[in-house]
Design goal:
367 residues; six-stranded antiparallel β-barrel; alpha+beta; disordered N terminus
């Protein structure tokens, strides 16, 4: 089941937080996309192991939370406006529509004998060449699938309802996150705050024997700083209230428009976490989904969400684009934007291959 966490809500506030990869029991393969959907795709598919439903994992109960370290609220800088700029509903809706088009469902199915669970999470395409930003706790399953291809299969799904569309490989998973959280796959009460929890996947082939498109709908990673009260579009494939069969056949993306209620830092006063209270997007399965501002940029990557009590009590947390860039530079001394822009998706996968094998070993040894 989803790993649970304490939210980054300041020293005096405590709530149940869960990483939003929904764990379920798969039933049977979903039907193929409609002919119209298949025509819209355009590269040839590769052979991927087929796992029969009788051999795949059942759902397990969610573990109890182990408190993680609290985070510090960010103090507004002197240069920041005290109130968010006015935004028309039309502009925000347009940004939300683009975010919705770029949001994907990530489905990883595991054999019972693999020792892992089947999960459903989210991702956002951030590059027209098919680069997907998602949470590291989702991306790690692609490392496991590479290490144990006969035991775990991961598929990128799109649409409403979600249907198989692509296969992808790891172009980057935060080494810092893997090193700090490798045991989370097997621990009943793992810790975490969302720090360094991001990964990049590269679409490599079609899952429906169709050509890959020349370009993909995408939302670029923003350089804007979001302030409290600013309204954002939030999207993901929330699955908390669905059972395994519904996830396979009837999983629809969620799009909501909510305002930022808090900001937190992993350091001193950098804006590293955006928090939204009382949102329907705070559900299991939303991790890896995104927050976009009215300018159409991706300002946050959903990593943790409170799912305790009514939806009005839920809290959604996302790491910021700033934190993603800073974390990437700290791990590899490279500029995030230029690194991913200056190489083809296949080259990015190859460039990360050696590191990926090291991280696979870390995961397997820890679990």
């Amino acid at each position: 089941m989803p790993r649970q966490f304490l939210p980054p809500l300041g020293a005096a506030v405590f709530a149940t937080i869960t990483i939003g990869a929904f764990v379920f029991s798969p039933h049977r393969a979903p039907p193929p996309p409609s002919q119209a959907a298949a025509v819209a795709l355009s590269a040839t598919s590769t052979t991927t192991p087929t796992l029969t439903t009788s051999s795949t994992t059942d759902a397990v109960a969610a573990p109890q939370v182990t408190p993680a370290a609290d985070l510090t609220p960010v103090s507004p800088s002197a240069s920041e406006p005290k109130l968010p700029p006015p935004v028309s509903n039309e502009v925000l809706t347009g940004a939300g529509a683009k975010l919705l088009d770029a949001t994907v469902n990530i489905l990883c199915i595991a054999r019972r004998t693999s020792g892992f669970e089947s999960i459903s999470g989210s991702g956002v395409i951030i590059d027209p060449r098919g680069l997907i930003l998602t949470a590291a706790h989702i991306g790690q399953y692609f490392l496991l699938a590479d290490a144990k291809p006969s035991s775990i299969t991961c598929t990128i799904r799109t649409g409403a309802p979600a249907r198989d569309a692509y296969y992808a490989k790891v172009a980057y998973v935060s080494p810092s996150w893997i090193e700090d959280n490798a045991k989370n796959l097997s621990e009943t009460s793992p810790k975490g705050t969302g720090e360094n929890d991001f990964a990049i996947l590269a679409i490599t082939s079609s899952a429906v024997h169709a050509r890959l498109p020349d370009t993909y709908p995408y939302v670029p990673l923003s350089h804007d700083t979001v302030i409290i009260g600013e309204k954002l579009a939030i999207s993901g494939y929330a699955a908390q209230y669905l059972h395994g069969g519904q996830i396979e056949y009837s999983l629809y993306p969620t799009i909501v428009f909510d305002s930022i209620t808090n900001r937190y830092t992993f350091d001193t006063n950098t804006v590293d976490v955006l928090s939204v209270a009382g949102t329907a997007a705070a559900q299991e399965g939303s991790s890896g989904g995104g927050m976009a501002d009215a300018q159409g940029g991706l300002v946050g990557l959903i990593t943790t969400s409170s799912i305790k009590g009514d939806i009005s009590d839920h809290i959604l947390n996302a790491i910021t684009a700033l934190h993603i860039r800073t974390s990437f530079a700290a791990d590899g001394s490279a500029n995030f934007d230029s690194y991913f822009a200056n190489s083809s998706p296949s080259a990015l996968v190859n460039n990360f291959n050696t590191e990926a094998h090291k991280l696979e070993k870390v995961l397997l040894e820890a679990n």
